[in-house]
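Exercise 7. Given the components listed, write out the predicted structure of the assembled complex. Treat all entries as one system.
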Amino acid sequence: MAEVTLRDVARASGCSVATVSRVLAGTRPVGAETARTVREAAERLGYRPNQVARALRSRSTGTVGLVLPQITNPFFPALVRELEHALHAEGRAVLLADCDDDPVTEAARIGAFLDRQVDALLVIPVEERASRNAVASAVARVPLVLLDRGCGPGVADSVAVDNAAGMALVLEHLAAMGRRRPWFVGAAGTASAAVERRAAYEAGAGVFGPEAPRRRELGDFSVEWGRAAVDRIWPSRPDAVVCANDLIAVGALQRLRQLGADVPGEVVVTGFDDIPLAGLADPALTTVRQPVAELAAEAAWLLGRQPTGGGPGSRRTVRLAPELVVRASTGAGVAAK
Amino acid sequence: MAEVTLRDVARASGCSVATVSRVLAGTRPVGAETARTVREAAERLGYRPNQVARALRSRSTGTVGLVLPQITNPFFPALVRELEHALHAEGRAVLLADCDDDPVTEAARIGAFLDRQVDALLVIPVEERASRNAVASAVARVPLVLLDRGCGPGVADSVAVDNAAGMALVLEHLAAMGRRRPWFVGAAGTASAAVERRAAYEAGAGVFGPEAPRRRELGDFSVEWGRAAVDRIWPSRPDAVVCANDLIAVGALQRLRQLGADVPGEVVVTGFDDIPLAGLADPALTTVRQPVAELAAEAAWLLGRQPTGGGPGSRRTVRLAPELVVRASTGAGVAAK
DNA sequence: ACACGCGGTGATAACGTTTGCCGCCAATTC
DNA sequence: GAATTGGCGGCAAACGTTATCACCGCGTGT
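Answer.
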């Protein structure tokens, strides 16, 4: 009932440890008859290879560390799920670290994972600047890919949604619906999603007139901020509120309804990410869906094909195309009402 | 730049590997002067102990496997967060497995974790019956505690919220608000949360009259079911809809509003769990808050104090008290309106 | 016939730690 | 002054695997 080791199987099948290892790992050709005997003995004894010993010898743990800012951020669970599945499909296990949105904790967790000899790291950095050092030093030791958020240019490979394209989809949709006075509610700070989305708004809002790009309020990525922002912009009567993510949009929606505004008649609202909450809001939120499964698959793939501690020469940046999901908050089904 | 090992530190500090190991691990008294030299050398070379080697030798990986049905279930992220923090505080890393609500996957993941020599397992079982075998066989090899859901009596230690007490709080609240015709919308199936909550409703609804315990509809734990259930029960005009979890309640709330019902005036709605969504619903949902942090702390503690592969003698079952969170869906602040 | 190659196998040395055991030297005890 | 501690430190054996090397026998090419 204790631990069955290679030795035990070897003894039971009358051959050497080396041979047993070889037949079980299929690492080198071995006699058909011997193979059968060995496999049978292994089966009979219920042999399970000790992954720790295997890892020590082969210098590969079959483990990747997943480091993220806050698992409670509703965008992440779906991503984590897809990553877990993608990695498990390759036989790799996932070590999880929740950083509590703190760069110091993040650095500590990355270090701990390195000590545990993870084969690779998947990092969703907490911050653009504050995370850079930890990421940069980790990148020298294992394959690492950045997810969802960047960390400065040339630091590591990264895969994320094309925020600019997503925002462009939103603006295009608004223009097509005849909206004229959009207002942007975004997030301050240096996180790449925040920066890219507000830059894209500024770049694309010109079609609504020269003043449009300047109509923006910056706070953080929270429901509370969405509510507060509406209080500040509502007096100037926008006919569209473009939010930098779904949480902000949900807050905006709530406050607008409290103020008696007609959504989507008088003013429409859009989000970004398409978290589960978006479809549940009332009215359901028009938003930009991130291709979560593809993001995960791409990240996992990149991780595999990356030289350990590769030089700074060839950083890849993958940007995946998002998709506009039109729901009631911009008038879908309004005609039928 | 490569791997700095104990040997290197030993060479650099002019003493043996054994001594270095001892000063770094503090496992045995060692000369003050030697200790200083060694520590200095270790620091200078940037020595980091190889956890894999350590694990192989000491037969402890400092790793626990966390196995859950679906990370995308909005109740879990908060729990995962607390567990990760609690375990990390003890220096243990967390391997994560998402089972996609499938008992077969669950068994596979548990097996994989065992092969990886996890020190312990934390399992939120997918199903009461289907998960039993995998859990029972794992329990023989490592400390294991069941979380949130049970898995049959005597299989393993478990910690969960006191569902009966939570439901009692709800019924008490409804009675105090003068409600007379409650209706229960729950989940069929054998998951312990489903069973216990509906049993508690049946047991406690007697105060609303002899018919009350029988006024129930059973489906699953989803928003869609919440919507559908309302369509079935609304014709008989309940003045309270008691839901088995927040997702159901959110669906019910949506449908009731679509049907033009006045919530909370005409009919009140309650949920269970207090997921983030609950506070965001409109009207905000009265619900039963699970003590997530305490659940996690208790589970982590139990895990530590459990003999490896302990006999079936002494299974502990911890039930933590929930808390009623009263919000607008049962009329909080209504008087002020 | 001889050398050569090659499929199949066994010993054995790693991988980087922890730890049991033994020996050394100084300090204490009779 | 010799014997007995007891604190410190080194040697070497594990932990369970994989990888390297050598070996053995047999078929093949010249």
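Discussion: Residues 32-45 of chain A form the longest helix (14 residues). The interface with chain B takes residues 48-53, 55-56, 61, 63, 66, 70-72, 74, 76-78, 80-81, 84-85, 88, 93-98, 100, 109, 112-117, 223, 250, 254, 257, 276-277, 280, 282 of chain A (CB under 8 Å).
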